[in-house]
Protein backbone atom coordinates (compact mmCIF):
# COMPACT_ATOMS: atom_id res chain seq x y z
CA UNK A 1 0.00 0.00 0.00
CA UNK A 2 2.69 2.50 0.98
CA UNK A 3 4.57 1.75 -2.23
CA UNK A 4 1.55 2.71 -4.33
CA UNK A 5 1.20 5.99 -2.46
CA UNK A 6 4.90 6.80 -2.81
CA UNK A 7 4.86 6.07 -6.53
CA UNK A 8 1.72 8.17 -7.04
CA UNK A 9 3.15 11.13 -5.11
CA UNK A 10 6.50 10.94 -6.93
CA UNK A 11 4.81 10.84 -10.33
CA UNK A 12 2.51 13.74 -9.42
CA UNK A 13 5.63 15.85 -8.86
CA UNK A 14 7.24 14.50 -12.05
CA UNK A 15 10.32 13.24 -10.19
CA UNK A 16 12.58 10.30 -10.99
CA UNK A 17 13.41 7.76 -8.30
CA UNK A 18 16.92 9.18 -8.16
CA UNK A 19 15.63 12.76 -7.69
CA UNK A 20 13.23 11.87 -4.89
CA UNK A 21 15.87 9.69 -3.25
CA UNK A 22 18.25 12.66 -3.16
CA UNK A 23 15.54 14.92 -1.72
CA UNK A 24 14.64 12.43 1.02
CA UNK A 25 18.21 11.30 1.61
CA UNK A 26 18.01 7.68 0.43
CA UNK A 27 19.45 5.89 -2.58
CA UNK A 28 17.37 5.38 -5.70
CA UNK A 29 17.70 1.62 -5.04
CA UNK A 30 16.12 2.11 -1.60
CA UNK A 31 13.33 4.22 -3.10
CA UNK A 32 12.69 1.51 -5.71
CA UNK A 33 12.30 -1.03 -2.88
CA UNK A 34 9.86 1.30 -1.11
CA UNK A 35 7.71 1.71 -4.21
CA UNK A 36 7.69 -2.05 -4.85
CA UNK A 37 6.84 -2.79 -1.20
CA UNK A 38 10.05 -4.79 -0.74
CA UNK A 39 11.22 -2.51 2.07
CA UNK A 40 9.67 0.15 4.28
CA UNK A 41 11.07 3.60 4.90
CA UNK A 42 12.35 4.45 8.36
CA UNK A 43 10.20 6.67 10.54
CA UNK A 44 12.63 9.52 9.87
CA UNK A 45 12.26 9.00 6.11
CA UNK A 46 8.46 8.77 6.38
CA UNK A 47 8.39 12.13 8.14
CA UNK A 48 10.61 13.68 5.45
CA UNK A 49 8.39 12.20 2.73
CA UNK A 50 5.20 13.45 4.38
CA UNK A 51 6.69 16.91 4.86
CA UNK A 52 8.00 17.10 1.30
CA UNK A 53 4.72 16.02 -0.31
CA UNK A 54 2.67 17.91 2.31
CA UNK A 55 0.56 14.87 3.20
CA UNK A 56 -0.26 13.24 6.50
CA UNK A 57 1.55 10.16 7.76
CA UNK A 58 -1.84 8.46 7.93
CA UNK A 59 -2.24 9.11 4.19
CA UNK A 60 1.20 7.65 3.44
CA UNK A 61 0.43 4.56 5.49
CA UNK A 62 -2.95 4.08 3.84
CA UNK A 63 -4.93 4.70 7.02
CA UNK A 64 -6.90 7.49 5.37
CA UNK A 65 -7.47 8.99 1.95
CA UNK A 66 -7.28 12.50 3.38
CA UNK A 67 -3.99 14.00 2.25
CA UNK A 68 -3.83 17.21 4.26
CA UNK A 69 -2.37 16.70 7.76
CA UNK A 70 -4.57 19.40 9.32
CA UNK A 71 -7.75 17.71 8.03
CA UNK A 72 -6.65 14.36 9.44
CA UNK A 73 -6.03 16.04 12.80
CA UNK A 74 -9.42 17.78 12.66
CA UNK A 75 -11.15 14.49 11.79
CA UNK A 76 -9.38 12.78 14.70
CA UNK A 77 -10.42 15.54 17.10
CA UNK A 78 -14.00 15.37 15.85
CA UNK A 79 -14.04 11.59 16.22
CA UNK A 80 -12.67 11.79 19.78
CA UNK A 81 -15.22 14.47 20.67
CA UNK A 82 -18.10 12.33 19.40
CA UNK A 83 -16.75 9.28 21.28
CA UNK A 84 -16.59 11.33 24.49
CA UNK A 85 -20.14 12.51 23.92
CA UNK A 86 -21.35 8.92 23.46
CA UNK A 87 -19.47 7.75 26.56
CA UNK A 88 -21.05 10.50 28.65
CA UNK A 89 -24.40 8.72 28.13
CA UNK A 90 -26.41 11.92 28.18
CA UNK A 91 -29.55 11.98 26.20
CA UNK A 92 -29.67 11.12 22.56
CA UNK A 93 -26.23 11.21 20.90
CA UNK A 94 -27.91 11.56 17.52
CA UNK A 95 -28.44 15.25 18.37
CA UNK A 96 -24.67 15.79 18.46
CA UNK A 97 -24.21 13.86 15.20
CA UNK A 98 -26.98 16.02 13.71
CA UNK A 99 -25.13 19.18 14.76
CA UNK A 100 -21.80 17.96 13.37
CA UNK A 101 -23.45 16.84 10.12
CA UNK A 102 -25.10 20.23 9.68
CA UNK A 103 -21.88 22.07 10.40
CA UNK A 104 -20.18 19.93 7.76
CA UNK A 105 -22.98 20.80 5.34
CA UNK A 106 -22.48 24.51 6.05
CA UNK A 107 -18.77 24.23 5.32
CA UNK A 108 -19.52 22.27 2.14
CA UNK A 109 -21.92 25.03 1.06
CA UNK A 110 -19.14 27.55 1.62
CA UNK A 111 -16.70 25.45 -0.43
CA UNK A 112 -19.31 25.25 -3.21
CA UNK A 113 -19.64 29.07 -3.07
CA UNK A 114 -23.31 28.86 -2.03
CA UNK A 115 -22.64 30.93 1.08
CA UNK A 116 -20.03 33.62 1.64
CA UNK A 117 -17.17 33.49 4.09
CA UNK A 118 -18.85 36.24 6.09
CA UNK A 119 -22.08 34.21 6.35
CA UNK A 120 -20.15 31.15 7.53
CA UNK A 121 -18.10 33.19 10.01
CA UNK A 122 -21.28 34.74 11.41
CA UNK A 123 -22.80 31.27 11.80
CA UNK A 124 -19.71 29.97 13.60
CA UNK A 125 -19.64 33.05 15.84
CA UNK A 126 -23.30 32.56 16.71
CA UNK A 127 -22.77 28.90 17.59
CA UNK A 128 -19.72 29.85 19.64
CA UNK A 129 -21.74 32.55 21.44
CA UNK A 130 -24.46 30.03 22.32
CA UNK A 131 -21.92 27.54 23.70
CA UNK A 132 -20.18 30.27 25.72
CA UNK A 133 -23.58 31.43 26.97
CA UNK A 134 -24.43 27.91 28.08
CA UNK A 135 -21.13 27.63 29.97
CA UNK A 136 -21.55 31.08 31.52
CA UNK A 137 -25.05 30.16 32.72
CA UNK A 138 -23.64 26.97 34.27
CA UNK A 139 -21.03 29.04 36.12
CA UNK A 140 -23.64 31.57 37.26
CA UNK A 141 -25.89 28.73 38.43
CA UNK A 142 -23.04 27.49 40.60
CA UNK A 143 -22.33 30.96 41.95
CA UNK A 144 -25.95 32.05 42.48
CA UNK A 145 -28.42 29.42 43.61
CA UNK A 146 -31.41 31.34 42.23
CA UNK A 147 -32.09 33.65 39.31
CA UNK A 148 -30.51 36.97 40.11
CA UNK A 149 -30.09 40.28 38.35
CA UNK A 150 -26.63 39.11 37.17
CA UNK A 151 -28.14 36.01 35.52
CA UNK A 152 -30.86 38.02 33.78
CA UNK A 153 -28.35 40.68 32.67
CA UNK A 154 -26.12 37.99 31.16
CA UNK A 155 -29.15 36.44 29.47
CA UNK A 156 -30.28 39.74 27.92
CA UNK A 157 -26.76 40.61 26.75
CA UNK A 158 -26.19 37.23 25.10
CA UNK A 159 -29.67 37.02 23.60
CA UNK A 160 -29.23 40.49 22.08
CA UNK A 161 -25.88 39.46 20.55
CA UNK A 162 -27.29 36.22 19.13
CA UNK A 163 -30.27 38.02 17.56
CA UNK A 164 -27.92 40.64 16.10
CA UNK A 165 -25.72 37.86 14.65
CA UNK A 166 -28.75 36.13 13.14
CA UNK A 167 -29.89 39.41 11.61
CA UNK A 168 -26.39 39.92 10.18
CA UNK A 169 -26.52 36.43 8.63
CA UNK A 170 -29.91 37.24 7.09
CA UNK A 171 -28.69 40.60 5.78
CA UNK A 172 -25.54 39.04 4.32
CA UNK A 173 -27.51 36.21 2.68
CA UNK A 174 -29.90 38.67 1.01
CA UNK A 175 -27.60 41.65 0.56
CA UNK A 176 -27.96 41.59 -3.26
CA UNK A 177 -31.74 41.84 -2.93
CA UNK A 178 -31.50 44.51 -0.24
CA UNK A 179 -29.07 46.49 -2.43
CA UNK A 180 -31.55 46.21 -5.34
CA UNK A 181 -29.29 44.02 -7.50
CA UNK A 182 -31.71 41.12 -8.01
TrEMBL record:
Transmembrane segments: none
Domain HTH cro/C1-type: 6-60
Keyword Acyltransferase found: no
InterPro entries tied to this protein: Cro/C1-type_HTH, Lambda_DNA-bd_dom_sf
Keywords: DNA-binding
Gene3D superfamilies: lambda repressor-like DNA-binding domains
Leader sequence segment: none
Molecular function (Gene Ontology), one example: DNA binding
Top-rank lineage group of the source organism: Bacteria
The protein's name in its UniProt record: Transcriptional regulator, XRE family
Organism: Thermoanaerobacter italicus (strain DSM 9252 / Ab9)
Amino acid sequence: MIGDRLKMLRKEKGLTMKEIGEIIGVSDAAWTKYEKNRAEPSIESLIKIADYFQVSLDFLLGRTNIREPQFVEEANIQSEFLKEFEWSKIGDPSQMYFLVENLSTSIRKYNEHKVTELELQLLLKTISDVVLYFNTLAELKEKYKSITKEVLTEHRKTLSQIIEDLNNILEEAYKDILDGKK
